[in-house]
Amino acid sequence: MNNQLLIPLVLYLAAVFGLAFFTRRHRHSGNGFLNEYLVGNRSMGGFVLAMTLAATYASASSFIGGPGAAYKMGLGWVLLAMIQLPAAWLTLGVLGKKFAIEARRHNALTLNDILYARYKNRAVVIFASLALLLAFFGTMVVQFVGGARLLQTVTGLSYSHGLMLFTVTVGLYTTIGGFRAVVMTDTIQGIMMIIGTIALLIGIVHAGGSFGELVTELHQINPELVTPFGANHFLSQPFMLSFWVLVCFGVIGLPHAAVRCMSYKSSSSLHKGMVISTAMVAFLMLGMHLAGALGRAIVPDIASPDQIMPTLMMTVLPPVVAGVFLAGPMAAIMSTIDSQLIQASATLLKDLYLNYINPKAAEGPEAESRLPKLSLWVTGIFSALVFIAATNPPDMIIWLNLLAFGGMQAVFLWPLVLGLYWEKASAAGAFASMVTGLVCYAGLSVVKPDLSGMHAIVPTLALSLVTFVLGSLLKPVAAPNPQHQL
Description:
mainly alpha
């Protein structure tokens, strides 16, 4: 174990815990535990909004899995990754203002509060809650695996010990600080990601002699690594186009990204957040994936592509510097999983337990002391289940992450977007779309029919859109009320 690598990481984790404890003082602001814990009293400014959205989007898949795929596929995967560039802009542009207005009007604290305010249907909310928990379970397994592999590579700990350390760290600081701690640490983590990406790219180019020499070396390893279609011509045009739907347009339907649209302070914060987050996502996607692709010229043989980022940092940077900037991929992983963990906790605690199982738990003078204990138990149990699932990781985490991403989009995209912009959207249409989307996507992902290179998310979203429209037209809203439109 290299102390020069380990000490900066330990200091970074200590700073994260310190910030989480610092944010606890806001819990006594007078607006209630749930309002502070779940949406931070809707107080995010533009810079914090941008950093938390971009940091949440740049996950273990982006910082570990994506560069691993670029290492394996070549520069073509870097081109593919840049399809994600407008993701944050689309999310804030489509959902931002309308989502914030409705969240304040109905005092909505979760995504499912918004769905209930729009559709007034318990079946929609319960199905959405269960689907969210299932999808978050898959994506959180990805983050846990990425964090454990990073600690394994850096510290020399076994995978199981690294997994245990990571689980305890993220679970504790999320539970301690809630949403405000999540977005504040996301801001720090976003800055660390940018600095780490710059340092790594400089180190790679310096180690390889020049950018041209690195590309030449890639060509010598396999000429297909420097083509737009990747090794074995994996990246066909239909796949590229459908991948854009999956990782860019469909991101509008991701619950942990959409909830950011409920939590900012003002319209100027929204506009500033759109610009900064788009620039940050563009830089991170290019930098991280380019590092993975060029890294093959420096480290041509590696056991698992998912280990390329920490391996490169330890190879091309001095130990102390590598230790500082290894916080970059650690930040990417933590900033996504804390967001998902807080939303999973909100779904279990607020949307299911308090709304349908035991509503009285949120009432009475003891509620403010009872709710933090409940949130602690909910977060701890969910983290433990994810930990157990992550003990047997897949070879490449990016595929599991994309599978879970697609599942969330299949369920949430049309109920959110059409609920906002189509006055005839009904509960029947939303529920039919959710069920159809989830069943279709799961079926195509399991059976894997020949779609001529197209990803399963494209026919899934097309079918769920048709189902939504037909369901809404066949069973319209009983008594439309423009005041309750989203």
